[in-house]
Design brief:
Length: 446
């Protein structure tokens, strides 16, 4: 027999029941109003559409209209999730109408940035953010309004606060300046407690310091600084500077195969341009017959850097000699490498130093072939970089390219193998067209 719950007469008479029902309804509506049908800060697309949307913190959607912008939020296309068309339609379009640069964006030295939810403009210098407190100060310091870049608020969280900029008669230390009518470029620095200007002696030095040529402030002669010593030496850290114990060898020989050549289906030698993003790729692409194939150390080497990130899942940097480093990506490393890197995959692909380095002997298994989610081909990225052999990109005028040895010191990775292995790998060059890539001039391997 079902027991009935009776409502006290006093409740019925006083309207308390109606009040409670109303409160429960409002609570239910309020709770569900705060629940988003899709995960916030995720990317989604409908099965029948090529449009990719970002779900904001306020449960609105913004379309990615630029693939370069997409890669400032996510390291790979594997982060795009499928969502039913009707569900995506229920998410309202965001009023902003565009995507600012994401948390993986590198604004580089001397950038001016703001978020889309806060009008405050910040100057980024030496890992710190400085708030420019008013339009008057911004204008008097001769910054340009078209220099300001909109960024995701999570990017600003990566910078420590350097305080506020309230003065107009002087610029901060670290600022790049030049005088009207004079091509000489200076960097403001502190020397023995006094602010001085240091002349950057050459364009080569400027590029090696990874400065932005489009962020130099032109000041009047009235703003004077005493001269400091010129900056005349390039700052390019070589592997030997990072590890004084490394062994010098400008011509190491890879005596063991990286992957059994019989299991290799295709190799795309560098350099290439990724058509979707327009990014330069100076590593080779090596495709294999299946996942799970062992990857071997081709030479005695040591792991000194690595990253564990969503969609990677791993990239690894090995030191072969003081001059030569080897990099692998999109692989599944052996357990002792995993133990040296973060256990949780990060959203960005920033490296973690492995200290002390992990050494491997030629022929030792270091990883296995892995397949990214949403990627049709099976294989890995393989690059070699020689500190003493700058390639044609070392003379580029693009500051983004000049800032990394991955661009400017990349070489043909297969030239280091023994003659027999070199020949085996070269027989696999460009057997299958790589749809998403286009050759960027003469191959490093020609």
């Amino acid at each position: 027999m079902t027991k009935r719950i009776s409502i006290p007469t006093s409740w019925r008479n006083t309207g308390v029941l109606a009040f409670l029902v109303l409160m429960l309804f409002l609570l239910f509506e309020s709770t569900h109003a705060n629940v988003c049908a899709l995960n916030k800060n995720y990317a989604y697309k409908a099965p029948s559409s090529s449009a990719i949307y970002f779900i904001t913190e306020t449960c609105t959607k913004r379309a990615f209209t630029n693939e370069m912008i997409f890669f400032t939020y996510f390291p790979s296309w594997g982060h795009v999730e499928a969502a039913p068309t009707l569900l995506l339609k229920k998410i309202p379009n965001d009023a902003l109408g565009f995507m600012p640069y994401g948390p993986l964006y590198d604004p580089q030295y001397g950038a001016l940035v703001k978020t889309v939810t806060d009008p405050k403009v910040y100057l980024l210098l030496d890992g710190k953010k400085y708030w420019i407190t008013s339009e008057m100060i911004f204008t008097k310091l001769r910054y340009r309004w078209n220099w300001i870049e909109d960024v995701d608020s999570r990017l600003l969280l990566q910078y420590q606060s350097g305080g506020e900029i309230t003065e107009t008669h002087r610029h901060l230390n670290g600022t790049l300046i030049k005088y009207e009518g004079d091509p000489a470029v200076y960097r403001l620095e502190d020397q023995n407690g006094k602010q001085v200007k240091r002349h950057i002696a050459s364009e080569e030095v400027f590029k090696s310091l990874k400065f932005r040529s489009d962020r130099i402030i032109t000041i009047s002669q009235d703003e004077s600084y005493p001269d400091g010593s010129p900056i005349s030496e390039k700052i390019v850290q070589s592997p030997s500077q990072a590890d004084p114990s490394c062994v010098k060898n400008i011509t190491p020989v890879f005596t063991h195969h990286l992957v059994d050549p019989k299991l290799v289906t295709n190799i795309v030698p560098p350099p290439n341009i990724h058509k979707a993003s327009g990014h330069l790729k100076t590593h080779s692409y090596l495709n294999t017959t299946s996942v799970g194939i062992p990857i071997y150390a081709p030479v005695d080497m040591s792991l000194f850097n690595g990253a564990h990130y969503v969609g990677g899942p791993y990239s690894l940097d090995f030191r072969v000699s003081c001059e030569v480093r080897l990099r692998l990506a999109h692989i599944d490393p052996v357990q002792k490498i995993k133990d040296a890197l973060p256990k949780e995959a990060k959203l960005d692909s920033k490296d973690t130093a492995v200290n002390p380095p992990i050494t491997f002997k030629a022929g030792e298994v270091i990883a296995y072939i892995y397949q990214d989610v949403g990627v049709l081909s099976v294989g890995l990225d393989f690059g070699v970089y020689h500190q003493d052999r700058p390639n044609r990109y070392a003379s580029s005028t693009n500051p983004e390219i000049l800032q990394s040895v991955i661009y400017t010191r990349a070489v043909c990775p297969y030239e280091f193998f023994t003659k027999e292995l070199n020949s085996s790998y070269r027989s696999k060059f460009d057997l299958i067209g790589q749809e998403g890539l286009v050759k960027d001039g003469v191959s490093f391997c020609d």
